[in-house]
Design brief:
Low-confidence stretches: none
Bound molecules: (2R,3S,4R,5S)-2-(hydroxymethyl)piperidine-3,4,5-triol
Strand content: 25-35%
Number of strands: 36
Radius of gyration: 26 Å
Distance between the termini: 39 Å
Length: 696
């Protein structure tokens, strides 16, 4: 069992890392250690006992508490803030008991209780030994007979080792331009990242990495964490006035309140965190393995080559147009045909139809079954697009239930893309959607659903809410998980894609339900390279749905466009009818090629060799877990002549064994390829995909 209880407290050990906590002399639950695993459980530092610093700073201000509540003379960002029924607005949590639970994963539970009020908190620490990750979450219980209002409840505060200066890495973006990596020094004060958009958002990701400023892709200490939550979140990276660095993550407290009734329990989402000396690449690989093996519903099966109709036919879908595309797609080797937006009642454009989830009678007079049967006969599976949380005012659903949307009764309902958001915090709305979608899945041979969400929130009102209406932010996400989870339970073989106009809902919460994420509505391949690099910081390639479309076709060679999409779960999204037979034949060759390498891409280890966000000449490599096979991708966008391409130094090979690389004569040792490097000749917008094989 990787959890030790010693005189000093508790030690959580993973394969190579450790995390220690304990009680200090003041009885506070404090952080002791997070870093490399040491020889013995007694090796870890003892609990710190800082004194006060003049009348202006009590010891609490200098104490690295595991889960600080708002209390005392303490101004660091607390994890918990509540108001009791009598108006008292602080929370004084002290240690009560601890228990270690065997199981998979093993768990340490620390029970804290308020010194005055019948209010308890349990800190959950779960240990994923082989993944070198620790999961933290919190549950609080109202054990009294009066309600308690929760105003902030975060999942964890992660403490960086004391005495260091840290650099924060995070991702920023926007619709059509997600996941740009930023690295910046942390100095005294708080760096705040958040989503207030109802989803995890395109704008920031609930993820961070911290290092001493010198880590790179291959080496250096990195501490990192993600929050598994698909709604509003907040990340507070604080350097205190005493130089302690801590990063807290959790549900956003902005406009949030939760009325915890007597006897009720509130649970936070989980924050997963790890430490590595293998740099940012090492951090990503740990997350990739964990997500693939532990979270994804179908992470151990190959994800299929998709065709998606959106960029080809947009709303102008009907049986004939889709059969034409399907025939061409099947001939190219596509395995799954996905009918995107436009198929349902009244959906001729984006101003009508959302909410009415039955086939449009004019476009599909005999329903979807004839198309699905045709697709199946062509040897492909069939997938469908839905946007369940949304409604157009011009829809039968909205005409019947105008009160079902998020709104403030006295305010105009702000539309975006002509749509409003259903209040899926309401169980009647959840039940309705479960029923509609369940029927769709039960009546058709559908094996893939793309779940889209094309706007962010406005007027987050919930007239008639039973508790505090500000619970809506969390209850909405619980509702989403309930609808999706129920459908998944009823149709366990269906693969789901999470889409919110691209990566607007890309997070570890949704990846318990969805296997794939639509990375961006931007499918221009050079932009996509950068977006995919950002995405790969957190998510494994098996989740990264990437289509070859017609965006960028005027200036980016077809081969380059295929290679970019082959770095993830390959899809095709171009208008196949407009493609020449030669183009389709070339696509078929790349699809066949992809099928030969996808086990390495989808299940292997990713090494980012040269960053496309930093360089016009970039490369990445996937290596199979047994290191017998690998695949190298390289891309050159525009480099003004004269340009000399630097060598690429491979990674992840067995240094002592020999490997052959397509296009290079003779075998060399892994060590030679990794240290001596290799050179490629690529012109502007040139790209390469090279298989690497170990020779016996
Ligand atoms: C946004 C998605 O990201 C696109 O792929 C497409 O499904 C459209 N919505 C359809 O409205």
């Amino acid at each position: 069992m990787p959890i030790y209880t010693t005189n000093q407290g508790w030690v959580l050990e993973t394969a190579t890392t450790a995390y220690a906590l304990g009680l200090n002399q003041a009885g506070l639950l404090v952080h002791r250690y997070w870093g490399a695993r040491l020889k013995a459980p007694d090796d870890y530092p003892t609990a710190p006992n800082p004194g006060s610093w003049s009348a202006f700073n009590n010891p609490a201000q200098r104490t690295p508490e595991e889960y600080p509540g708002y209390e005392d003379i303490k101004f660091i960002d607390p994890c918990l803030k509540v108001t009791f029924a009598d108006g008292v607005r602080n929370v004084v949590l002290r240690f009560d008991s601890a228990e270690v639970r065997a199981g998979e994963p093993p768990e340490l539970r620390i029970h804290l209780r308020d010194t005055t009020y019948p209010f308890q908190a349990t800190l959950h620490y779960r240990v994923y030994e082989t993944y070198d990750l620790i999961e933290r979450a919190v549950t609080v219980t109202n054990a009294g007979d009066a309600p308690i209002t929760i105003e902030r409840i975060w999942s964890a505060q992660w403490h960086m080792p004391a005495g260091g200066n840290y650099r924060l890495t995070h991702a920023v973006g926007r619709h059509m331009d997600e996941m740009h990596i930023r690295r910046e020094p942390l100095t005294e004060g708080i760096k705040l990242l958040e989503s207030r958009r109802l989803t995890s958002s395109h704008h920031h990701s609930p993820w961070f990495a911290a290092d001493h400023g010198s880590a790179d892709e291959d080496a250096g200490e990195v501490w990192f964490s993600v929050l598994a939550w698909s709604g509003n979140w907040k990340l507070s990276a604080e350097v205190t006035d005493f130089g302690s660095t801590r990063v807290s993550m959790g549900i956003n407290d902005w406009d949030f309140a939760w009325r915890l009734e007597p006897g009720e329990v509130f649970s936070t989402p989980s924050s997963y965190a790890g430490y590595t000396v293998a740099g940012f690449g090492g951090a990503s690989r740990r997350l990739h393995d964990f997500i693939r093996d532990t979270l994804l519903p179908h992470g151990r099966t190959i994800h299929k080559v998709i065709y998606n109709s959106w960029e080809a036919t947009e709303f102008a879908v009907d049986e004939e147009s889709q059969v034409a595309l399907a025939e061409l797609a099947a001939a190219m080797g596509v395995e799954l045909f996905v009918l995107d937006d436009g198929w349902f009642h009244g959906r001729d454009h984006d101003a009508a139809g959302l909410g009415d989830w039955w086939p449009d009678e004019r476009k599909f007079p005999n329903g979807l079954t004839p198309l699905i049967e045709r697709v199946n006969k062509l040897g492909m599976e069939f997938g469908l697009w839905v946007e369940p949380e949304m409604v157009n005012p011009d829809s039968e659903l909205y005409r019947a239930h105008p009160d079902w949307v998020l709104h403030f009764p006295t305010r105009a309902r702000t539309e975006a893309r002509n749509q409003l958001i259903l209040n899926i915090a309401r169980t009647d709305v959840q039940d309705y959607l479960i029923d509609q979608l369940d029927r769709l899945l039960a009546q058709h041979n559908i094996t893939f659903i793309k779940w889209d969400m094309n706007r962010n929130v406005s007027e987050p009102g919930w007239p008639g809410a039973a508790g505090d209406p500000r619970e809506v932010w969390v209850r909405y996400v619980h509702g989403l998980y309930r609808i999706w989870g129920t459908l998944r339970d009823r149709h366990p073989d269906v693969i789901w894609q999470s889409c919110s106009g691209g990566a607007g809902r890309a997070d570890l919460g949704i990846l318990r339900l969805a296997d794939q994420i639509w990375v961006s509505d931007n499918t221009e391949p050079t932009a996509r390279l950068a977006i995919q690099e950002g995405f790969s910081q957190i998510f494994p390639a098996i989740t990264m749905e990437a289509w070859v479309t017609d965006m960028g076709a005027e200036y980016v060679p077809f081969e380059f466009r295929c290679h970019v999409s082959m770095c993830g779960t390959l899809g095709i999204g171009g208008h196949l009818v407009h493609w020449t037979p030669d183009r389709r034949a070339e696509a078929a060759r790349w699809i066949a090629h992809y099928k030969g390498i996808r086990h390495i891409v989808q299940f292997g280890d990713l090494f980012r060799l040269r960053s496309p966000q930093a360089h016009p000449y970039s490369a990445l490599q996937y290596v199979s877990k047994d290191r017998s096979e690998s695949v190298l991708f390289a891309f050159r966008t525009h480099l003004p002549p004269p340009a000399q391409l630097p060598p690429l130094y491979l990674r992840g090979l067995d240094p002592d064994l020999a490997y052959e690389i397509e296009g290079f004569a003779g075998a060399r040792s892994g060590s030679a390829w990794m240290n001596g490097g290799l050179s490629l000749e690529l012109a502007d917008f040139g790209s390469a995909v090279r298989r690497i094989r170990r020779v016996e």
